[in-house]
Amino acid sequence: MNYNEVGFRHLEAGNYELAAQAFNDAIEQQPNDPTAYVNLGTLLQSMDDADRALRFYEKALTIDPAFASAHYAKGALYFAADQLVEAEESLRLALLHGLDDADLHFMLGLTYQKLGDPVRGIPRLKQATELNGVDVEIAFQYGLALAQNEQIEEAAEIFEQVLLLEETHTDARYNYAIALAFLGQQEACYTELETVLAYQPNHTLARDAKAKMDALLK
Hints:
By secondary structure, this protein is mainly alpha-helical. It has a domain at 1-99: Alpha Horseshoe (Serine Threonine Protein Phosphatase 5, Tetratricopeptide repeat). The protein has helices at 3-12, 16-29, 34-46, 50-63, 68-80, 84-96, 102-114, 118-131, 136-148, 152-165, 170-182, 186-199, 204-217. The longest helix is centred in the first third of the chain and has 14 residues, at 16-29.
């Protein structure tokens, strides 16, 4: 029996006690396999027990210092705790040890952005969008990073892609409107702001931006 698979089925169903038992069984069956330690840590982290989760990630890395999933899980835990320097180190180690998926690039990109390092952050977010072209949040955060780095045309293109994926994403549409304003397309900006407010009448930023434009038109 693959206890790790059983554990994940219980975890997805919200049966935490059964999931924990299955992961413990996996550890007893193969105590030198780091996988179950990471899985049990992930379960504990989902239950807001970060301290115990970290101990299981560390145990996995004691068994296999190059176990990329443990480095990633540790990085995600640090990111959630806003320990960005530690998060960057762990996520970078996950990358160096062979993990190459959209979630890793996305989280590493966000970490660099929060550290004020767009030179390293933007390429990671770009890579995440290339690996997962249908994830709305990944694309949106990539667009924001481009806009914050004053790459306005590129940001506008990404926000357009987000809106193709989710037409009612009001934050993406608002940022698209602002990008259009910076590009000198005032009428298009105004139209997008109206659309934002049609979808979300209490969108404060869009309402304020539209009010400023209305005042200028008087």
